[in-house]
Specification:
The structure holds 2 protein chains of 2 kinds.
Chain A: E1 3-6, E2 11-14, E3 19-21, E4 23-26, E5 31-38, E6 45-50, E7 56-59, E8 62-65, E9 75-77, E10 86-94, E11 104-105, E12 109-114
Parallel strand pairs in A: 2-12
Antiparallel strand pairs in A: 1-4, 3-9, 5-6, 5-10, 7-8, 8-9, 10-11, 10-12
Chain B: E1 5-7, E2 10-13, E3 19-24, E4 31-37, E5 44-50, E6 53-57, E7 65-68, E8 75-79, E9 88-95, E10 104-105, E11 109-113
Parallel strand pairs in B: 2-11
Antiparallel strand pairs in B: 1-3, 3-8, 4-5, 4-9, 5-6, 7-8, 9-10, 9-11
Chain lengths: ~120, ~110
C-alpha cells in the first residue's frame, strides 16, 4: 500500500538554524510528493510539490528533492525564522497528475523556532 | 473568494447523537474531499466528489457516515450514532478538478464525543 513516514517531532531550533525534516515513502506506482504546512489556527496549505524523480520543489526558502532511489522527500531550509513555527506534513498521491488526487499524509512534525 | 469554509468549527456531542457538518468549497471548484485527522496524526482520506458524484469512499467511512454534495456545490458529512472514537478534526478540501491541481483546505470542524 501507500504510506508516508516522517521524522518524529517536536523539533525545536533557534532562529537562523538549518532545518531538515525527513520524509520517506512507500508507494505502488509513481507518486507525486508534497509538503503541507499548518500554521496555528489555520488550515493546511500546500508548501511545495514534486511530480517526478529528481524534481526539486521550492517555496518560501524551503526545498525538497524527489529521490526515487532512496524513496525520500526531505524538507530543508537554510535559515529558519520564528514565523516558520508550524506543523509540517509530508504527503503523496499516486495518480495525482492524471487527476486522482487522493492524498496520503505522514503523521506531521511540529516545528518550533525560538528567537 | 474567501477560501474553503466549514461549519461549525467546533461540535461537542454526546455518544449516540447524530451530527452534521457542512463544507462550502471555493466557487467553481469541481472536486471536494473529506479527510479526518486525529490528534498527533496526519489527515486520512474519507471520500471525494466530482461535482455531485461521490467517486470514492475509504473503508474508514463506516455505515454510520454519509456524505452528500447536492447540486455539486456545498457538501455535508453526517455521522449517525456517534461514538467516542469519532472524536477528531474533520477537514474539507476542494480543487478545480484540472489535472495536477492543488487541494485547498478549510479550517476543519473539531468533533468531541463525550
Amino acid at each position: 500500500g501507500n504510506s508516508v513516514t516522517q521524522m518524529e517531532g517536536p523539533v525545536t531550533l533557534s532562529e537562523e538554524a538549518f532545518l531538515t525534516i525527513n520524509c520517506t515513502y512507500t508507494a505502488t506506482g509513481y507518486p507525486s510528493l508534497f509538503w503541507y504546512v499548518q500554521y496555528p489556527g489555520e488550515g493546511l496549505q500546500l508548501l511545495l510539490k514534486a511530480t517526478k524523480a529528481d524534481d526539486k520543489g521550492s517555496n518560501k526558502g524551503f526545498e525538497a528533492t524527489y529521490r526515487k532511489e532512496t524513496t525520500s522527500f526531505h524538507l530543508e531550509k537554510g535559515s529558519v525564522q520564528v514565523s516558520d513555527s508550524a506543523v509540517y506534513f509530508c504527503a503523496l498521491s499516486v495518480g495525482w497528475v492524471q487527476g486522482a488526487q487522493k492524498l496520503v499524509f505522514g503523521q506531521g512534525t511540529r516545528l518550533t523556532i525560538n528567537p | 473568494d474567501t477560501g474553503v469554509s466549514q461549519d461549525p468549527r467546533h461540535k461537542i456531542t454526546k455518544r449516540g447523537q447524530n451530527v452534521t457538518f457542512r463544507c462550502d468549497p471555493i466557487s467553481e471548484h469541481n472536486r471536494l474531499y473529506w479527510y479526518r485527522q486525529t490528534l498527533g496524526q496526519g489527515p486520512e482520506f474519507l471520500t471525494y466528489f466530482q461535482n455531485e458524484a461521490q467517486l470514492e469512499k475509504s473503508r474508514l467511512l463506516s455505515d454510520r457516515f454519509s456524505a452528500e454534495r447536492p447540486k455539486g456545490s456545498f457538501s455535508t458529512l453526517e455521522i449517525q450514532r456517534t461514538e467516542q472514537g469519532d472524536s477528531a478534526m474533520y477537514l474539507c478540501a476542494s480543487s478545480p478538478g484540472t489535472l495536477g491541481d492543488e487541494q485547498f483546505f478549510g479550517p476543519g470542524t473539531r468533533l468531541t464525543v463525550l
